[in-house]
Design goal:
Blueprint (H helix, E strand, L loop, with lengths): L1 H25 L4 E7 L3 H12 L4 E7 L7 H5 L4 E8 L5 E7 L6 E7 L8 H16 L3 H7 L27 E13 L5 E11 L4 E12 L1 E5 L2 E16 L8 E20 L7 E20 L2 E10 L5 E5 L2 E6 L3 E11 L10 H7 L3
Parallel strand pairs: 1-2, 1-3
Antiparallel strand pairs: 3-4, 4-5, 6-7, 6-16, 7-8, 8-10, 9-10, 10-11, 11-12, 12-13, 13-16, 14-15
Helix pairs in contact: 1-4, 2-4
C-alpha cells in the first residue's frame, strides 16, 4: 500500500514540476485567500508555497472550526480569484471556491487527504489543489492560443454580384396608401376641414416620393362688416421624402419638400347693400414639412404631419372693393393619417445566400 501511494505521489510531483515552466505565464494575476483552521498548519504552509510558485498572491487568514467563514462572501472581494479553506479532518481537507469566467457562477471543489497516516499526504493534497487552481485560472490569452484555428471552407462558387458589395438595406422598396383627417389654415380665415388621401413610395435608400390630395369638407370662413366669405380650398401636392430611420422602424421622423396646386372656390354672403358673388381661382405653392410616426403593426403606421405653404400668384380677397387679406401668405396644413403598406407592389426579394451558391463563373 505504501509503495503504491508513494508512486502516486511521485507521479503527481513529476507532472507538477513539468508544468511549472508554463504555469506562471498561463495563470491570471490576482489573490488567493487561504483560511487555515487550527491543527492544519503543515498543510496550510505547503499550500501557500505551492500557490505562490504560480505567481499568485496569498492572503492567509485564521478560521474557526466551529463557525467557518463564508467562501462566497470573500470571493466577492476585489482582486480575489479563489478562496481555499483548510481543515484537519481525516488527515487534512481543502474546500476551494472560485469564479467561472464563462458565466460568473461559483465553481466548488473539495479534496480530502488519501491517508491520515502517510507523511506525504499533505504534499499530495497540496499538489492536487494547485492543479485545480491552475486548470480553472488559466489566462484567457492562453486558452485562445491553445484553440486550433478553424480552416475556412473552400468556396464552391463565386457570386456574380460579389464586386458590387452587400445591399445597403435589407428591405425592398415599398408602396403605401394613406388617408386621414386634415386642416388647412390661412391668415384671416378660420381653418378648413379636409379628408387627406394619397400614396407614398419608399425606397431602401431612405428616399421616396409622395402624391396627396386634400378634399374640402368644412369650408374656411372670413367674416367682416361687409359680409362673409366661405372658402372651399382643394389642394393637390407632390413632394419628395427623406426618412433617416429605416422604413420598418417602430418610431421615425420624415421630411418632405415639393410643390402644391390649390383650387380656391369662394362663396360670398354680402350684407346689404352689397351683392353676393361666387368665384374660382388657382394658386401654386412651394411646400415643406415634417412628419413623425410609429408602427402600429406590420405594414401599418400612423403619421402626424405639418407643412407650410406660400401661395403664388398673390390671391387677394376683397369685400365691397376693400382688400381684406391675401390667401396663402402664408398657409399651412396639419394632418393625422394611417399608412398601409402594399407589399404586393414591391419587387420580390432574393435570398442572397441561395443566389450565391447557385450562380458561379
Amino acid at each position: 500500500m505504501s509503495v503504491r501511494f508513494a508512486a502516486m505521489v511521485a507521479l503527481s510531483m513529476v507532472s507538477w514540476v513539468a508544468a511549472q515552466g508554463e504555469a506562471r505565464a498561463d495563470v491570471a494575476s490576482g489573490t488567493v485567500v487561504l483560511f487555515v483552521t487550527e491543527g492544519s498548519g503543515a498543510l496550510g504552509r505547503r499550500l501557500r508555497q505551492e500557490i505562490e510558485s504560480l505567481g499568485l498572491a496569498v492572503s492567509s487568514r485564521p478560521a474557526d472550526a466551529m463557525s467557518p467563514p463564508s467562501l462566497d462572501g470573500v470571493l466577492q472581494e476585489k482582486g480575489v480569484l479563489a478562496v481555499i479553506r483548510v481543515t484537519p479532518v481525516a488527515g487534512g481537507a481543502v474546500e476551494i471556491a472560485l469564479v467561472n469566467e464563462a458565466d460568473s457562477s461559483t465553481i466548488r471543489h473539495k479534496r480530502v487527504a488519501a491517508s491520515a497516516g502517510e507523511p506525504s499526504s499533505a504534499e499530495l493534497l497540496a499538489t492536487q489543489t494547485v492543479e485545480i487552481l491552475r486548470a480553472n485560472l488559466i489566462a484567457p490569452r492562453s486558452r485562445t492560443a491553445l484553440t486550433p484555428p478553424v480552416a475556412p471552407e473552400a468556396p464552391v462558387s463565386r457570386p456574380l454580384h460579389a464586386a458590387t458589395g452587400p445591399p445597403k438595406d435589407d428591405r425592398a422598396p415599398d408602396f403605401a396608401l394613406f388617408a386621414g383627417p386634415a386642416v388647412l389654415g390661412s391668415d384671416a380665415f378660420t381653418p378648413s376641414g379636409h379628408v387627406l388621401a394619397g400614396v407614398n413610395y419608399l425606397s431602401p435608400l431612405h428616399l421616396g416620393a409622395s402624391a396627396a390630395a386634400f378634399f374640402p369638407v368644412v369650408p374656411a370662413r372670413l367674416s367682416e362688416p361687409e359680409g362673409a366669405v366661405d372658402l372651399f380650398p382643394s389642394l393637390y401636392r407632390l413632394t419628395a421624402l427623406y426618412q433617416p430611420e429605416p422604413w420598418a422602424s417602430s418610431l421615425f421622423v420624415r421630411f418632405s419638400a415639393g410643390i402644391a396646386l390649390a383650387h380656391l372656390h369662394w362663396q360670398g354672403a354680402a350684407n346689404s347693400p352689397n351683392v353676393s358673388a361666387a368665384e374660382d381661382a388657382f394658386a401654386w405653392s412651394p411646400t415643406g414639412g415634417v412628419a413623425a410616426g410609429f408602427r402600429l403593426a406590420a405594414g401599418l403606421r400612423v403619421v402626424g404631419e405639418a407643412t407650410l405653404l406660400v401661395g403664388y400668384p398673390r390671391t387677394v380677397v376683397r369685400l365691397a372693393g376693400r382688400e381684406v387679406t391675401a390667401w396663402g401668405r402664408p398657409a399651412g396644413t396639419a394632418s393625422i393619417s394611417f399608412e398601409l403598406s402594399l407589399p404586393f407592389f414591391s419587387p420580390p426579394r432574393v435570398d442572397a445566400a441561395r443566389a450565391s451558391s447557385s450562380v458561379s463563373r
